[in-house]
């Protein structure tokens, strides 16, 4: 494990509460490649669950990491999910914390700190300094350890990105996911293709440009060919605001699902591609993101 405390929240988080206060039926925990676009998209999917006909009691939880944590290679995305799955063991976090902080601070002190019951004094300041030095987001780790449903699903969301990820590398990651019973959601060439499916009839609108989408060349400091198409239509770069989501994506999720299933590749092996030719190394254009929404709507 590269870093025992990579799981960090960059802002305030809150536990989704069901009206009847019962335990969630299912939580889909996702470790995502992008530290901004994907996290914001899935956070907004969670926020507008009822509008999207997501089953009551089912939630989606993208795992957070620090803003400056840009270690997004497929293996590192998988590592972050492993970190979380390990965290679910009730015996793991206390041991990790014991090594970092509990030799000096008691469980009672930690509990009072998290509940905001302590006066700000030298001990509290030293405790916070220790957490920062150790890279521990204590509140977020404890939240994740306790947040569980009855039939949880664990998955990763990664880009095909043939320029940086070889066919062999992608196959190794997928094989490991299968061995650990994780789900793997891939978009070829990248997550922005899934976003593009919300915005236009891709097969019709870009019938003469599908190879350009597949090759996805870098066209500026901020964009690849495909991400620029998204930006030109929806008017955003990596960040997706609430207003943008409601205007361009919220009511088009089923449209995206329909396009993905009808017009493009959805099988993991097809999305990854093969070493038979230069084009086949790119993988077939498509995404299996519709499978994620099946998990959210059918329990």
Protein topology:
Elements: E1 26-32, H1 37-47, E2 58-62, H2 74-87, H3 92-102, H4 107-114, H5 122-134, H6 138-146, E3 153-159, H7 167-179, E4 183-188, H8 191-199, H9 202-205, H10 210-215, H11 225-234, H12 242-249, H13 253-263, H14 268-272, E5 286-287, H15 290-297
Helix pairs in contact: 8-11, 8-13
Summarize the structure.
The chain is 47% helix and 9% strand. It is an alpha/beta fold and 299 residues long.
How would you describe what is shown here?
The protein is of the alpha/beta class. The protein has one domain (26-88, 148-297). 47% of the residues lie in helices and 9% in strands. The chain has helices at 37-47, 74-87, 92-102, 107-114, 122-134, 138-146, 167-179, 191-199, 202-205, 210-215, 225-234, 242-249, 253-263, 268-272, 290-297; strands at 26-32, 58-62, 153-159, 183-188, 286-287. It has a 5-stranded mixed sheet with strand order 2-1-3-4-5, sandwiched between helices. Strand 1, helix 1 and strand 2 form a beta-alpha-beta unit. Helix 8 runs parallel beside helix 11 (225-234) and helix 8 crosses helix 13 (253-263). It is elongated and about 65 Å long. The mean pLDDT is 88.
Please bin the fraction of helical residues.
40-55%
Main beta-sheet strand count, sense and barrel state: 5 strands, mixed
Choose one word for the global shape.
Answer: elongated
**First-last Cα distance:** 33 Å
| Content of β-strand | 5-15%
For the CA atoms, what is the radius of gyration? Answer: 21 Å
Specify the structural class: alpha/beta
What spatial order of strands do you see in the largest sheet?
2-1-3-4-5
Compute the average pLDDT: 88
**Are there runs of 5+ residues with pLDDT below 50, and where?**
none
Number of domains: 1
Order of helices and strands: EHEHHHHHEHEHHHHHHHEH
The tally of strands reads: 5
């Amino acid at each position: 494990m590269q870093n025992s405390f990579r799981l960090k929240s960059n802002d305030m988080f809150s536990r989704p509460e069901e009206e009847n206060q019962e335990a969630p039926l299912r939580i889909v925990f996702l470790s995502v490649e992008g530290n901004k676009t994907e996290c914001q998209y899935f956070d907004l999917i969670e926020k507008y669950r009822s509008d999207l006909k997501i089953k009551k009691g089912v939630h989606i939880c993208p795992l957070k990491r620090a803003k400056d944590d840009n270690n997004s290679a497929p293996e590192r995305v998988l590592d972050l999910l492993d970190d979380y799955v390990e965290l679910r063991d009730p015996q793991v976090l206390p041991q990790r914390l014991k090594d970092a902080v509990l030799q000096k601070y008691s469980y009672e002190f930690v509990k009072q700190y998290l509940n905001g019951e302590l006066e700000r004094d030298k001990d509290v300041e030293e405790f916070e300094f220790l957490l920062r030095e150790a890279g521990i987001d204590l509140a977020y780790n404890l939240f994740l350890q306790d947040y569980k449903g009855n039939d949880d699903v664990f998955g990763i969301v990664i880009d095909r990105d043939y320029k940086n990820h070889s066919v062999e590398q992608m196959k190794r990651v997928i094989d490991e996911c299968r061995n650990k019973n994780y789900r793997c959601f891939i978009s070829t060439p990248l997550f922005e293709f899934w976003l593009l499916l919300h915005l236009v009839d891709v097969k019709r609108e870009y019938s003469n440009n599908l190879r350009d989408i597949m090759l996805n060349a870098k066209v500026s400091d901020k964009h690849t060919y495909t991400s620029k198409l998204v930006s030109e239509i929806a008017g955003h770069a990596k960040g997706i605001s609430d207003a943008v989501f409601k205007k361009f994506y919220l009511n088009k999720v089923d449209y995206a699902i329909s396009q993905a299933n009808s017009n493009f590749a959805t099988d993991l092996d097809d999305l990854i591609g093969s070493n038979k030719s230069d084009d086949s190394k790119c993988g077939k254009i498509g995404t299996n993101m519709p499978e994620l929404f099946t998990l959210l709507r059918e329990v």
